[in-house]
Amino acid sequence: MILPDIIKQVENSPDYVIWTANKGKNPICDLTRVAGFIIHEDYEHITFFLPRGLFRNLESNLSKGSNINILFASIKDFQSYQIKGNYESHCDGNEENFNFYKGKVRNVIDIMTSMGLNGQLIMGYLLEQPSVAVTMYCREVYVQTPKPGTGYKINDENHVQ
Amino acid sequence: MKTMSNKITQDMLPAFQGVIPPTVATASANGVPNVTYISHVHYIDEDHVAISRQFFNKTWQNMNENPFFAVVVMCPQTYNLWKISLRFLEEKTDGPVFDDMDIIIEAIASMQGMQDTFKLKSAVICKVESIETLVVNGKIV
Question: Which helix (H) or strand (E) holds B70?
Fold first, then answer.
């Protein structure tokens, strides 16, 4: 699918925390935090970045085309979106990747700190190196904001189904 | 080296006070994951917790298709992070666990100004299958 505008806005927003979940042969999903993501020029793929120490939780579940999801949630107003998709590839993160998401993670740390929390302790580990870059194909986008009726799908034309 | 256990320990208890919303990941019978935030994971005893069911539909459908799922909780004091693997046992719409959770959900809703929309439908009782420590003292384990 072509990612809707709202996900492009999330990419540029400073206040989202990100999670990913996937599943292999084990009946239980794996679930971990993500440091940042970038939308590809085709608007159908994203690459997300996370420390290798967290990637280890996902790695054994990954195979070409396997199911993988990513969740974005605003720490300011709880707006949340989930992308369901398929794993395509992963590689070691590089310095360019790190420089891209470092500023975004620092922004979230600063926002948390301004809210009276210890932002560094909550999010600082996302800057641990080395990192991994995971690329996925985006199949569906859902609204996950906590409110009655949530969980609906956003289609390619940005209309809800 | 990750620490694994299958009992909730004393140092984890603050993570069940409803301060930081937990994240839950379920999977359908055909293996499609679903990840979302929930309001509260309630401590029952070292082997059991209850998940607050308010809005989630796909999560609930998945739990009924595949009772095994994961939740990540964070301690609001140390910010340590744990991934708890759970097995769905039963749903409660009354009784002491439901009543305790209802009070906590009302408190959470009040703090967030969402008293009219944050209503507890049920307490989803779960068995703790295993616990994995993800982050301690701000460092990945």
Answer: strand B68-74
In a domain, B124, yes or no: yes
Q: Residue B33 burial by CB count (10 A; 0-12/13-18/19+): exposed, middle or buried?
A: buried
> Could you say which architecture CATH assigns to the domain A5-154?
Roll (2.30)
Span A44-55, pLDDT tens digits: 999 999 999 999
Burial of A34 (0-12, 13-18, 19+ CB in 10 A): buried
Domain extent listing, chain A: 5-154
- How many interchain CB pairs under 8 A, A with B? 113
Quick: pLDDT tens for B43-66.
Answer: 999 999 999 998 888 999 999 999
**What are the tokens at A20?**
């990913």
Q: Are B88 and B27 in contact (CB under 8 A)?
A: no
Interface test with B, best of A125, A139, A145 (most B CBs within 10 A): A125
The whole-model pTM stands at 0.93
Q: What ipTM was assigned to the predicted interfaces of this complex?
A: 0.91
CB-closest option in B55, B69, B134 to A148: B55
- Asked if A31 and B70 come within 8 Å (Cβ–Cβ), the reply is yes
DSSP percent split of chain B into helix, strand, coil, nearest 5 = 20, 40, 35
Q: Give residue B23's domain range.
A: 3-136
Q: How many domains does chain B have?
A: 1
- What CATH number should be reported for the domain holding residue B86? 2.30.110.10
Q: In a 3-state reduction of DSSP, which class is residue B99?
A: helix
